[in-house]
């Protein structure tokens, strides 16, 4: 049973395009900041003979390429669903988060490698001008500010992609800290401080990169929500009027959204329209109680089929066959108005509505006898009940 669309009176969901534009604006701030820092680090690094500052400028330049990737993924992720992507384009953000997490891990390994190499060449540090230390300090403050700005935006927009980029900015701040420590150590006569700081920061960046990449990987393989979150959704479903039971609640993430599908058990004798009404109620209650869930697919069950792993033995009769059997039982003694079939426990119960008719006692007894014979000879039928419509 397909999930319904929210009526016009309900609060509209967050605008994906507006969210994508916000992500792009935040990323453009990062692009502008990195561009200015690259220019400043290059000029001051060459002037002050601080090649570590020039190397940090090259590192910052690489961020511009990752920022461009974030812009592209954020714009693509905000596009509405289409024929090729019926669930939307949120996974583009997830894929970009995985790539950025991998880059963070690689940067962390690079710091570890660099610190080891520098420890083996302590005497090769060239004297630098004090202006390099000031530039490293400005870079450090700018990168830390960019990290906090981007991280706050990622939490407000619930965008893991921006969070990954924020921690990338923190890795750049750590890189600038390493450069500042190296330059300060060189100026103060303690060059060993730079490789030690690089090792500590390398471990931090490597850990964060692996965590972000692992989270994105779990989302790409459709890892469900934690058990306690699924149980809360189940409690919401069970509290819905008309729900008898619930099972097979399945969830998965797609960027800032959670998708959910579930089997809901209802009274087996209600009509299709009433069952659909209950599914609508379940849908809207979940959306209201759990705002992170953006889409719910509700499957209505007339009985608990949670343990059903294989198809039932034999096939129950289709409506055309049932109609023919009932017509044969009636033997033209009454006009058939409607048949309602309940498929329960791999067998069926049939409710037959007859037009207003005056059956004699013998006709009634004969109808009862033919019905009992059917139930004895055809195990597919559990019960057949006749109702006579009273003329107004």
Features of the shown structure:
59% helix, Alpha-lytic protease prodomain-like, three-stranded mixed beta sheet, 3 domains, Alpha-Beta Plaits, 10 helices, single chain, alpha/beta, rod-shaped, GMP Synthetase, Chain A, domain 3, 392 residues
Topology:
Layout: H1 16-47, H2 51-77, H3 90-119, H4 130-157, H5 160-188, H6 193-220, H7 227-238, E1 245-254, E2 257-265, H8 272-289, E3 293-301, H9 319-330, E4 336-344, E5 347-354, H10 361-377, E6 381-388
Parallel strand pairs: 2-3, 5-6
Antiparallel strand pairs: 1-2, 4-5
Helix pairs in contact: 1-2, 1-4, 2-3, 2-5, 3-5, 3-6, 4-5, 5-6
The total of beta strands comes to 6
Integer tally of domains: 3
**What name goes with the CATH superfamily of the largest domain?**
Cation efflux protein transmembrane domain
Q: For the CA atoms, what is the radius of gyration?
A: 34 Å
Describe this structure in words.
- The protein is α/β, with parallel strands linked by helices and 392 residues long.
- The chain folds into three domains: 16-220, Cation efflux protein transmembrane domain (Alpha-lytic protease prodomain-like), CATH 1.20.1510.10; 227-301, Cation efflux protein, cytoplasmic domain (Alpha-Beta Plaits), CATH 3.30.70; 319-388, K homology (KH) domain (GMP Synthetase, Chain A, domain 3), CATH 3.30.300.
- 59% of the residues lie in helices and 14% in strands.
- The protein is built from ten helices and six strands.
- The chain has helices at residues 16-47, 51-77, 90-119, 130-157, 160-188, 193-220, 227-238, 272-289, 319-330, 361-377, and strands at residues 245-254, 257-265, 293-301, 336-344, 347-354, 381-388.
- The strands form two sheets. It has a three-stranded mixed beta sheet with strand order 1-2-3.
- Helix 10 (361-377) links the parallel strand 5 (347-354) and strand 6 (381-388).
- Helix 3 packs antiparallel against helix 6.
- It is rod-shaped and about 120 Å long.
- The relative contact order is 0.09.
């Amino acid at each position: 049973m397909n999930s319904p669309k929210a009526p016009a009176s309900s609060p509209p969901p967050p605008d994906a395009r507006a969210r994508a534009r916000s992500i792009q604006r935040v990323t453009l701030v990062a692009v502008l900041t990195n561009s200015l820092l690259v220019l400043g680090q290059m000029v001051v690094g060459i002037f002050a003979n601080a090649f570590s500052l020039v190397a940090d400028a090259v590192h910052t330049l690489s961020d511009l390429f990752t920022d461009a990737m974030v812009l592209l993924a954020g714009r693509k992720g905000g596009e509405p669903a289409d024929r090729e992507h019926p669930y939307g384009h949120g996974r583009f953000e997830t894929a970009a988060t995985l790539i950025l997490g991998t880059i963070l891990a690689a940067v962390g390994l690079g710091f570890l490698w660099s610190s080891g190499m520098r420890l083996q060449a302590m005497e090769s540090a060239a004297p630098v001008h004090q202006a390099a230390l000031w530039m490293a300090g400005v870079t450090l403050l700018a990168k830390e500010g960019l990290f906090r700005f981007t991280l706050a935006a990622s939490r407000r927009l619930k965008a893991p992609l921006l969070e990954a980029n924020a921690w990338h900015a923190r890795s750049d701040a750590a890189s600038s800290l390493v450069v500042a420590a190296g330059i300060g150590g060189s100026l103060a006569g303690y060059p060993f401080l730079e490789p030690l700081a690089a090792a500590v920061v390398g471990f931090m960046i490597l850990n964060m990169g692996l965590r972000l990449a692992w989270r994105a990987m779990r989302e790409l393989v459709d890892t469900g929500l934690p058990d306690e979150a699924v149980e809360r959704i189940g409690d919401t479903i069970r509290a819905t009027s008309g729900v008898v039971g619930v099972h097979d609640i399945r969830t998965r993430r797609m960027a800032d959204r959670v998708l959910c599908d579930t089997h809901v058990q209802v009274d087996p004798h209600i009509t299709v329209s009433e069952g659909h009404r209950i599914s609508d109620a379940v849908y809207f209650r979940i959306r209201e109680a759990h705002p992170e869930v953006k889409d719910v697919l509700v499957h209505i069950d007339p009985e608990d089929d949670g343990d059903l792993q294989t198809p039932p033995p034999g096939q129950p009769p289709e409506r055309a066959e049932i109609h023919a059997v009932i017509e044969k039982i009636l033997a033209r003694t009454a006009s058939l108005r409607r048949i309602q079939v309940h498929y329960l426990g791999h067998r069926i119960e049939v409710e037959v509505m007859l037009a207003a008719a005056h059956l004699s006692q013998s006709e009634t007894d004969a109808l009862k006898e033919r019905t009992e014979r059917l139930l004895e000879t055809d195990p597919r039928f559990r019960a057949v009940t006749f109702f006579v419509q009273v003329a107004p």
